[in-house]
Write a structure and sequence with these properties.
This protein has helices spanning 6-14, 61-66, 80-88, 157-169, 206-217, 271-286; strands spanning 18-19, 21-26, 32-37, 41-44, 49-52, 69-74, 99-101, 107-109, 114-126, 129-141, 147-150, 153-156, 171-180, 183-189, 192-194, 197-199, 220-231, 238-247, 255-259, 292-295, 299-301. The chain has 302 residues and is α+β, with helices and mostly antiparallel strands. It has two domains: 6-151, Pnp Oxidase, Chain A (Roll); 159-296, Nucleoside Triphosphate Pyrophosphohydrolase (Alpha-Beta Complex), CATH 3.90.79. Strands 13, 14, 15, 16, 17, 18, 19, 20 and 21 form a nine-stranded mixed sheet that branches. The radius of gyration is 24 Å and the shape is elongated. Bound molecules: flavin mononucleotide. Flavin mononucleotide is lined by residues 20, 35-39, 53-55, 58-60, 83, 86-87, 149.
Length: 302
């Protein structure tokens, strides 16, 4: 036994960004089993070897410990449902996703980015997990983006790229959630509060326009991830909001810094700003920021 705080250790391990896979096998009596795993690692090219680590406590552990074949499906960005299903569902997991069999009769999750059909090469007990090493007998892969996982949440690079593309090419305005010492910069108007935003000059992208705007404000600003990209249905124009950390500089005219936990009391001028700021407050509390892409009424949060 060690004296490490298990929660802190889990969080430290979880800070390593990974993809998400579903590992499958069939028992000697023909029962199909599978679990979600991010312990996937490629090991060797010659022979072609990979590894996944099933936990001793898995209900299917004995089957993986004894298997002669297993398969790994690397999930695509739109397969979060399959990941959740194979991480938690107590119902028949294979009734909830589309799948097909490989040459050994092992189920492969359809729609995945890559499939690896393996024969068991080595099984090494390691603490409360088994290092299950497989020799790749067949594999397929395609151009889709994979599903990402970090700090206990999913992310999607495809979605991030799309947002960057929209934000760069089609946005008419760019705005910012400017944070400084636990407060957010808001602008007061006669109709209510809004967030600082400017029109994008045609020769610059959204990020460069925002950088120029922040420079005018003075102080030090660091532009972070895109937080929201959406189309205003009234005008058909896109607006992108970035998160920004700012230190120093003046507070611009008609603007004020409001403590983040007091933001929900403010009356914003539009529904899209209200919902965006509410999401910002919640995500700030959890420390995990997601990305919204859609219009001002509905869209996807990833
Ligand atoms: C993203 C993600 C990654 C996971 N990675 C692993 C892993 O590498 N090894 C493992 O044993 N469990 C892993 N789990 C947990 C298992 O998927 C989960 O405990 C399992 O499906 C429970 O199956 P059971 O109800 O049949 O025991 C992961 C879960 C998630 C959501």
């Amino acid at each position: 036994m060690t004296t490490h705080d298990p929660k802190a250790l889990r969080n430290a391990f979880g800070s390593f960004m990974t993809g998400v896979t579903i590992v499958t096998a069939v028992s000697k009596t023909g029962e199909k089993v599978g679990f979600t795993a991010n312990s996937f690692t490629s090991i060797s090219m010659d022979p072609p070897l990979l590894m996944v680590c099933p936990a001793n406590k898995l209900s299917s552990f004995d089957i993986f410990e004894q298997c002669e074949h297993f398969a790994v499906s690397v999930l695509a960005e739109d397969q979060q449902h399959a990941s959740n299903c194979f991480a938690g569902s107590k119902e028949d997991r294979f009734a909830q996703v589309a799948w097909h069999e490989d040459a050994f009769g092992t189920p492969l999750i359809s729609g995945a980015v890559a499939h690896f059909s393996c024969s068991a090469f080595e099984k090494i007990p390691a603490g409360d997990h088994l290092m299950l090493v497989g020799q790749v007998e067949h594999f397929t892969h395609n151009e889709k983006f994979g599903l990402g996982y970090a700090k206990g949440g999913y992310f999607s690079l495809g979605m991030e790229h799309k947002a960057e593309e929209v934000a760069h090419g089609q946005c008419a305005r760019v705005g910012a959630l400017i944070e400084s010492a636990g407060k957010l910069l808001v602008e007061k108007t006669a109709e209510g509060y809004r967030l600082p935003a400017v029109d994008i000059s045609s020769e610059k992208g959204s990020r460069a326009t925002l950088a120029a705007f922040l420079e005018q404000l003075g102080g030090e600003s660091e532009i972070g991830q895109v937080f929201s990209v959406y189309e205003k249905s009234s005008t058909g124009n896109f607006i992108a909001f970035y998160r920004v950390e700012r230190t120093g500089g003046q507070t611009p005219e008609n603007c004020e810094y409001v403590p983040i936990d007091a933001l929900q009391n403010l009356n914003f001028i539009s529904y899209d700003l209200t919902t965006m700021v509410n999401r910002f407050v919640t995500e700030k509390q959890h420390g995990v920021f997601r990305l919204y892409v859609g219009n001002d009424l509905e869209g996807d949060v990833r």
